């Protein structure tokens, strides 16, 4: 038995295992999408990754980094690709536009829509498009049209499309006019430093959002790029990020990090490993100061104790910040699930004020929003007259307005 035979058999087995895993978690729901995952060799689109990583349901494969070491191109995690493909409700013969290439996702789409359908995939990076075209040809998908160009303007001549799937973090959504009647547009849309993959369906002059899914993507480049503010503190050990607002005073924030901190503890608890992502949405609703605090995983320091390593909520002003933390909640019943108590640490001149504000909103979320339905999302043109939601917020963008509205 040759090494190639072993590799082929391992790949076949890992693909079957991946399909089983994705079905069990509910990410794969249709026979057509499951068949695509069972057929397309994911490892061919990520040759730099070992087979075990290529077929992990939860692993992202980074394929290109910039000079600073930040990922600028990747193959998304299979669970998220499956969720987005299912959300698009692709049919045989459908015309599909993919924003952000790589090849693998386009191959999955091509399998679902069949040879009678059409797939156009666009990317601004020639490194990405060259790879995508080469890998697609090698895996039997040469009919996928790979376009090098800025997705803000490219591929309109091949529309309208029955589905548009965006595989990069998009701050705006300028593709609605390319969607055919009855079409669906799945977009990882960024607002207030939050990203949710939302499926938009046209209703008159607006798009109604469905199934917002927590996700993370490499930011879109080109004309649609949007820069957040970032403050890197303690020689890279800690980073704060916020979308917009007054300019951050990095020197003041650096001093605040090591100054005396305010400590508050709420009565709100969360089970170990349980999500609380609607808290992020609530904080983004009620304050412009909402952002994130990030510990550097490569630094061994105890300057901060965030509630979670990634996407830990914070309130940030130019010279002060407060963030969410946790500690073990006291329990006399060892049989109960392990629970954590939410607290807040505040730093800087306004640290105590921000800590109290964050603690109060955690309590409000727990009382009024935690156990109810989350907010709905609607996308309008930028020039539309949009009534303010009773409870919610309008995020104004260049081409569109995103309305986040909570049930009253």
From TrEMBL:
Main location: cytoplasm
Subcellular locations according to the entry: Cytoplasm
Record Pfam families: PCMT
Keywords, sorted A to Z: Cytoplasm, Methyltransferase, S-adenosyl-L-methionine, Transferase
Keyword S-adenosyl-L-methionine in record: yes
Family: Belongs to the methyltransferase superfamily. L-isoaspartyl/D-aspartyl protein methyltransferase family.
InterPro entries, per database record: Methyltran_FxLD (IPR027573), PCMT (IPR000682), SAM-dependent_MTases_sf (IPR029063)
PANTHER family the UniProt entry points to: PROTEIN-L-ISOASPARTATE O-METHYLTRANSFERASE, PROTEIN-L-ISOASPARTATE(D-ASPARTATE) O-METHYLTRANSFERASE
EC number annotated for this UniProt entry: 2.1.1.77
SUPFAM superfamilies: S-adenosyl-L-methionine-dependent methyltransferases
UniProt name for this protein: Protein-L-isoaspartate O-methyltransferase
């Amino acid at each position: 038995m040759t090494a190639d035979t072993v590799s082929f058999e391992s790949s076949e087995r890992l693909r079957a295992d991946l399909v089983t895993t994705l079905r069990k978690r509910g990410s794969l729901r249709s026979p057509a999408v499951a068949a695509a995952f069972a057929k397309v060799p994911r490892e061919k689109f990520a040759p730099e990754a070992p087979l075990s990583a290529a077929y992990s349901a939860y692993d992202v494969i980074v394929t290109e980094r910039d000079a600073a070491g930040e990922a600028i191109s990747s193959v998304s995690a299979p669970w998220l690709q499956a969720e987005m493909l299912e959300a698009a409700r692709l049919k045989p013969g459908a015309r599909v536009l993919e924003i952000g290439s790589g090849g693998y996702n386009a191959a999955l789409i091509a399998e679902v829509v069949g040879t009678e359908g059409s797939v156009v995939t666009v990317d601004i990076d020639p490194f990405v498009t060259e790879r995508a075209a080469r890998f697609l040809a090698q895996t039997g998908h040469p009919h996928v049209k790979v376009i090098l160009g800025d997705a803000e303007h490219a591929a309109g001549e091949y529309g309208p499309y029955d589905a548009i799937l965006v595989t990069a973090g998009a701050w705006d959504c300028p593709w609605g006019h390319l969607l055919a009647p009855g079409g669906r547009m799945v977009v990882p849309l960024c607002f207030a430093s939050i990203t949710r993959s939302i499926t938009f369906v046209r209703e008159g002059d607006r798009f109604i959002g469905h199934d917002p899914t927590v996700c993370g993507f490499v930011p879109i480049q080109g004309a649609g790029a949007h820069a957040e503010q970032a403050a890197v503190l303690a020689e890279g050990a800690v980073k704060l990020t916020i979308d917009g607002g007054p300019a951050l005073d990095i020197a003041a924030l650096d001093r605040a990090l090591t100054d005396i901190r305010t400590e508050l503890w709420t009565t709100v608890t969360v089970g170990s490993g349980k999500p609380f992502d609607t808290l992020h949405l609530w904080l983004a609703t009620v304050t412009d100061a909402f952002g994130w605090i990030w510990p550097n995983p490569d630094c061994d320091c105890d300057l901060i104790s965030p509630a979670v390593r990634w996407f830990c909520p914070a309130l940030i002003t130019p010279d002060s910040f407060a963030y969410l933390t946790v500690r073990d909640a006291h329990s006399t019943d060892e049989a109960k699930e392990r629970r954590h108590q939410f607290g807040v640490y505040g730093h800087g001149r306004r640290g105590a004020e921000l800590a109290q504000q964050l603690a109060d909103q955690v309590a409000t979320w727990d009382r009024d929003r935690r156990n109810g339905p989350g907010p709905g999302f609607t996308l309008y043109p930028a020039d539309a007259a949009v009534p303010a939601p009773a409870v919610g917020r309008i995020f104004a963008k260049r081409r569109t307005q995103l309305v986040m509205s909570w049930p009253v």
